Structures are given as C-alpha cells and as structure tokens.
Input
Amino acid sequence: MNDITSKKGNESITARREEFLKAVRTLISVYYPNIRLDDFPSYKLVRNGGIHPIGILVSIILSQNTSDRNASIALRRLKERVGEFLDPAKLRGVSVEELEEIIRPSGMQRQKSRAIANVLKEFRSDPDALMREDPERLRERLLGIGGIGPKTADVFLLFVRGYPTFPMDTHIRRFLERMGIGRRSEPYERLRGRVLQLLPRDPEFLLAAHLAIIMHGRKVCRARNPLCHECMINSMCPYHRSKLQETSKGETK
Ligand code: SF4
Output
C-alpha cells in the first residue's frame, strides 16, 4: 500500500485523512467515557497509582501475547511474593527461575522472566530514569533491552509518561487495514509513523484513541464477522464500502 501522502485512486488525501480522523473521534466519543479500567489492566495500574514505574513496565511485559485475565493472575502472584508496590530492589531478590514459576500463568514465562531481569539490570543504578529520561531517548533505551518490543515501549511511554506515541496491537492493526490506512502486516514503525501523521500529537487524544479502537476491535470490528451493519462509523469505512459494492454487483448479475 502506498504511503498516505501519495495519491490513492481518485480519493483525495485530505478527504481520507478527515474521514479517518472523524471516525476516530466518533469512536472516542462512544467508548472512552465508558472505558472500564478492568478492561485495561496496565492502564488501571497507572490510574490507581501505588506501584513503582518498573512494576508498571513489568505488568506490561506480563500482558504480552496473553489474555488480560492470565496477565492479572501472574501479576497478583508476583505482588504476593514482593509486595503491592513491586519495588525494583525486591524484584531483584527473586531469581529468574522463581520468577519464571511465579509468572507462568501469563504464558511465555521463560522469555518474560528474562525480559524482566533485563529491565531490572538496565535500570539497576537509576530506576527513576524511567520517569526522568527524555522520552525519545528512553524509547531507544527500552528498545535496546532484550524482550522489550516497540509496543511495550510505546504503552509505557503513552500511559506512564504521557508521551505522544501510538502503541499498536492486533485490534488496532486490523482496524487500520480496514480503514485503508495501511496493511496490518506492515512494519510497526512505519504504521506507527503514519498514524502519528494523521492524528493530533496530543497524548490525551492518542490515549483515548488507543483505548477506544481496542474496545471497538473487541466488540464490533472483530477479526471474524465484523458487525459492519451496526457499526457507528460504517459510512466512513472503505472496507464496508467495498463490501457493499461487492454485494450490489452480485445482485445486479
Ligand atoms: S464498518 Fe466494519 S470494518 Fe469498518 S470499522 Fe466498522 S466494523 Fe470495522
């Protein structure tokens, strides 16, 4: 797919951008006021406070490639072992082998326990750097840690640091593809860069958009059988338009 800044058929780029922005604003207005913190465990930790930033990063690692429920079980077990605050010094007192056993319910415990150990090592001398370091430099630093990918780094930067970035998960990638913004298989950084060109660089807006699109992907724009007919943004969705055209062509044959 071409970059959003190049011509795409007869469609005007400005019109496409405005349509996408309008769709995202609509999703925010529908979902964001009713967001349940229980649906976003890492965000809930940030909102509720009482946990060290390293602990929040650990919770984001636990949430990789698993359900919220399993990540929450693993996090509860870890808190039972080291305390609610997830103090980095106490976390360092747990061996990688024991950590692996504690976080087993979240799956991929081997990789995750090593990623957590790597984080603890990286910030050993200055754990508060997570809150102090220049966000772009911190992003680079996080991406240099084994087991930390761009999504984990961006979730931390957006949720905790209020930095205007856009973490993308499977729901968001699927939504972007259906909205004609990019292919879901595109490299993370390219797709992220394109979204950041299209949406306001306002951390509150990007946070609301991130949470709202995920809710939409879970409830309506599902992987299988998306509920396009009852979707509140179907008039702005190229995927829906193309499906309608296919249907009307089929009917006129
Ligand atoms: S119309 Fe269908 S494909 Fe488009 S956003 Fe809504 S549910 Fe997703």
